[in-house]
From TrEMBL:
Pfam families: ABM (PF03992), ASCH (PF04266)
Name of the protein: ASCH domain-containing protein
Every ASCH domain range: 119-245
SUPFAM superfamilies: Dimeric alpha+beta barrel, PUA domain-like
PANTHER family found in the cross-reference section: CYTOPLASMIC PROTEIN, CYTOPLASMIC PROTEIN-RELATED
Organism: Corynebacterium casei UCMA 3821
Domain of life: Bacteria
């Protein structure tokens, strides 16, 4: 029996460095869109201008990995691919249950597998944390070590990529881990607390805020039984990260 096919979805941004880039893109885009939509396996393809005229939003969906790879190969060797190769792109690719980062000017031409970055739970807190990551205020995060053990997930590693999603499950940026430490809750430093970008002035304030979250009904329910006991000896996973690419247009704020 053949394995079931699953669709591949891509979302992200094309960013022009100057007017010349934008001129090249506009000259070759109509034919690229036409040829892509005619490809077998293309379910959806759009390239739309954002509020920033130099940034375009890309959305693609193909019926299978084979169809997506065929599109990538054709595009790379087309007039579009040759003439726009030096224009920056940043894409998040969802292939079944797996996520990939495609950022040619940073990571090379091939997609790199990434983890899914889900901060807190969908809602106001996640929106706040994601906004802090995008603004550069949040360069660190923490989780309970027991989460990885209980759900059989691999611990984060230095150099690992994450596709960060918002409350609507939309990929907004790609981050790369720069440091990973596992320490008891009592040993989290003031420096890490401040780097989390949530307004904590020191480790004591950080501990109070995180204990409140890790003992909240929503978190307790998500972990299941037995209830995770949060105390000074509880191991926490501390991750420092950097944003390497933005994959969703950030609305401009007018003063």
């Amino acid at each position: 029996m053949n394995p079931p096919l699953h669709s591949v979805e891509l979302t992200g941004l094309i960013t022009c460095a100057d007017e010349n880039d934008l001129h090249i893109l506009k000259r070759h885009l109509p034919q690229h869109v036409k040829l892509t939509r005619e490809e077998p396996g293309c379910e959806h393809f759009s390239v739309e201008q954002t509020q920033n005229p130099s940034v375009l939003k890309v959305s693609e969906k193909f019926t299978s990995q084979a169809a997506f790879e065929a599109h990538q190969a054709r595009s790379q060797h087309s007039e579009w691919g040759r003439n726009t190769a030096n224009i920056a792109r940043a894409y998040a690719v969802k292939d079944g249950g797996a996520w990939w980062a495609l950022v040619p000017h940073v990571l090379g031409k091939k997609p790199i597998q990434a983890q899914l970055g889900e901060y807190a739970f969908p809602g106001p807190l996640r929106d706040k944390l994601v906004a802090a990551i995008l603004s550069g205020e949040k360069t660190a995060t923490a989780s309970v070590h027991e989460e990885y053990q209980r759900f059989g997930e691999a611990l984060p590693t230095v150099g690992e990529l994450e596709i960060v999603i918002d409350s609507d499950a939309k990929p907004v940026c790609i981050t790369r881990n720069t440091q990973v430490n596992i320490v008891p809750l009592s040993q989290v430093t003031d420096a890490h607390a401040v780097a989390e970008g949530e307004g904590f002035k020191d480790a004591a304030a950080w501990r109070a805020g995180h204990i409140a979250f890790w003992t909240s009904p929503e978190f307790v329910e998500s972990m299941g039984e037995p209830v995770v006991e949060i105390k000074d000896e509880t191991l926490v996973v501390l991750v420092s990260m950097e944003v390497i690419a933005i994959t969703a247009a950030v609305p401009s704020v007018e003063g």
